[in-house]
């Protein structure tokens, strides 16, 4: 029993010693950590002070350099003014500044002139007075007589369809290229998809209204309108005389052909004329019963539609 007791005492003593040494190590680590923290804080403060001192030094250095530069510029200005004065160049005052004014003299190498500061308010500049131009009396323009609103205001021409495509963004529209005797074909968007097969339009000669204001139709600008006979029974493209050529003009007997370059939409010229456009019993396109004609060649007609509106 005494041996066991001794062993237990030794074990307990060793454990106690181990615990004490472990506690001492932890305390030492804590103490070292505190020292490290203090050292880091001191270093931070030192770095901050160094940074402030460097910034202050750099600022002072820049100020001194700027002052030297300004002094050099002022010296150069004075030298330039003296040289100009010696060579008879007058000094012009700068607005809102005190300027150096010296009377212009001939070069004199024996004496140096002194400049006197004079406020700008005391310097008077003399400017030559502008001569007043006599006003010309306005020319009185003679009032232009208003043209009658009739079929003569419509620019109707014969055109030939050179190309037909379906509109990329509108299922009901064709996009046509029509030659009407100009430098280049006109682009025309026409809602004939449901009424006229595309093959019937290719290379076809048509009657074209050319002085409507161009308008965009789903992104494509339409520059004219194909004239058609129209009714509930269907739509038919008007056919010019067989021997018509691109650019031939369409007339109505008894009405002077004097079309606007582009009809002003606000004046509603076409809207006023349109109700009197129709086909007659002979299938001829008419304005108030007067047929459309290409002079010396014949009439513009529909295929089957009689006494229906033309639009």
Automatic annotation (TrEMBL):
Highest taxon of the lineage = Eukaryota
Gene Ontology cellular-component annotations: cytoplasm
Which GO terms of type biological process are on file? translation
Key words, A-Z = Coiled coil, Cytoplasm, Protein biosynthesis, RNA-binding, tRNA-binding
**What start-end ranges are recorded for coiled-coil regions in this protein?**
26-86
| UniProt xrefs under Pfam families | tRNA_bind
Ranges annotated as biased composition (Basic and acidic residues): 134-144
A GO molecular-function term, please? tRNA binding
Localisation per UniProt entry: Cytoplasm
Domain TRNA-binding: from-to ranges: 150-251
InterPro entries for this protein: NA-bd_OB-fold (IPR012340), tRNA-bd_dom (IPR002547), Tyrosine-tRNA_ligase_regulator (IPR051270)
What is the designated name of this protein? tRNA-binding domain-containing protein
Q: Which organism is it from?
A: Exocentrus adspersus
């Amino acid at each position: 029993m005494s041996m066991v007791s001794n062993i237990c005492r030794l074990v307990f003593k060793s454990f106690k010693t181990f615990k004490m040494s472990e506690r001492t190590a932890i305390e030492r680590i804590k103490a070292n950590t505190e020292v490290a923290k203090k050292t880091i804080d001191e270093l931070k403060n030192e770095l901050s002070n160094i940074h402030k001192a460097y910034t202050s030094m750099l600022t002072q250095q820049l100020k001194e350099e700027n002052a030297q530069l300004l002094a050099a510029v002022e010296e150069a200005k004075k030298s330039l003014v003296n040289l100009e004065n010696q060579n008879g160049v007058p000094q012009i005052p700068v607005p809102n500044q005190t300027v150096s004014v010296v009377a212009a003299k001939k070069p004199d190498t024996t004496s140096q002139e002194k400049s006197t500061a004079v406020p700008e308010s005391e310097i008077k500049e003399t400017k030559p007075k502008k001569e007043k131009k006599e006003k010309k009396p306005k020319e009185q323009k003679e009032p232009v007589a208003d043209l009658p609103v009739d079929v003569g205001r419509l620019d109707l021409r014969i055109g030939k369809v050179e190309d037909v495509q379906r509109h990329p963004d509108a299922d009901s529209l064709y996009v046509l290229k029509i030659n009407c005797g100009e430098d280049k074909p006109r682009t025309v968007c026409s809602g004939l998809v449901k009424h006229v097969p595309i093959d019937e339009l290719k290379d076809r000669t048509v009657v074209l209204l050319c002085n409507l204001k161009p308008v965009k139709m789903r992104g494509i600008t339409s520059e004219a309108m194909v004239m058609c006979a129209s009714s509930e029974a269907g739509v038919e493209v008007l056919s010019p005389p067989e021997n018509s050529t691109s650019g031939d003009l369409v007339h109505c007997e008894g009405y002077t052909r004097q079309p606007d370059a582009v009809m002003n939409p606000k004046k509603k010229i076409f809207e006023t004329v349109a109700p009197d456009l129709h086909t007659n019993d002979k299938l001829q396109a008419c304005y108030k019963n007067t047929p459309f004609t290409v002079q010396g060649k014949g009439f513009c007609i529909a295929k089957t539609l009689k006494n229906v509106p033309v639009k």
